[in-house]
Design a protein that fits this description.
- The structure is a single chain.
- With 226 residues, this protein is of the alpha/beta class.
- Helices cover 35% and strands 12% of the residues.
- The strands form two sheets. Strands 4-3-2-5-6-7 form a six-stranded parallel beta sheet. A two-stranded parallel sheet has the order 1-8.
- Helix 7 links the parallel strand 5 and strand 6.
- Helix 1 crosses helix 3 and helix 2 crosses helix 3.
Length: 226
């Protein structure tokens, strides 16, 4: 298995390793870099309550704000989709506020990545939310790109976000490493040919770890691929 040139066939076995050289590192944001699921849940609960209904289901892992608005419209068919999406954006922004927290191990990983390696965020959150969140964490100067759904034609599970993130890093997707936490995001990442690390319950990556504190991650010190 050649991990340095984007050729890989399955999960990294116990005792395996991540690519020692990459052209760029790309991150999902929600629940990969940033502890934000609670904000999405709170925003959804507030929306359904405002409509006089009870929110019936969990947030779609890796889904978009439009996915949540469509679920609301399914529940309340008289709701206007555009207005619902706009209201959700306001609620989500309020819930996130300036009090976002990095996921365990995220700040340490971002802080120790070789400065010569470009890194980027590619999220299914709205672009304004992505930029505001990364800036609130003080990471905006480190990330080459901070992309959300408004920056591409098709959100995840399409590969567009990661392809655009790689382009802005001056990298070929197959020479990147991507961190993801949802099946939808992993599908998008794998479609690019990148080496994909999935976190938590998602097991469809080239390497699968419980979180960013796993020794496979904390011991990883990649160099730029020449």
């Amino acid at each position: 298995m050649s991990t340095e040139h984007g050729c890989h066939t399955g999960p990294t076995p116990a005792g395996g390793s991540l690519p020692s050289q990459v052209q760029a590192i790309l991150f999902d944001m929600d629940d990969t870099l940033v502890d934000s699921e609670r904000a999405w849940v709170a925003a959804a609960n507030r929306l359904w309550t405002e409509g006089g209904a009870t929110w019936p289901a969990p947030v779609i892992p890796g889904g978009t704000i439009e996915d949540l608005a469509k679920a609301y419209q399914d529940e309340l068919p008289g709701a206007d989709l555009q207005a619902t999406t706009a209201r959700l954006l306001i609620l989500l922004d309020e819930e996130l506020g300036d009090h976002v927290s990095p996921m365990p191990g995220a700040a340490e990983l971002v802080g120790r990545i070789n400065p010569a390696l470009p890194i980027a965020v590619a999220s299914n959150s709205p672009s304004a939310v992505v930029r505001r969140t990364i800036t609130a964490l003080g990471w905006d100067s480190r990330f080459r790109a901070m992309l959300g759904t408004d920056d591409v034609a098709h959100p995840k599970p399409a590969p567009d976000l990661y392809q655009e993130a790689a382009r802005r890093c001056g990298a070929e997707p197959e020479h990147c490493l991507i961190f993801e936490d949802s099946p939808m995001g992993a599908q998008a990442a794998l479609a690019t040919g990148a080496f994909v690390v999935t976190l938590g319950r998602t097991t469809t990556g080239d390497a699968v770890v419980p979180d960013l504190l796993d020794p496979l991650i904390t011991s990883w010190n990649p160099e730029p691929l020449s």
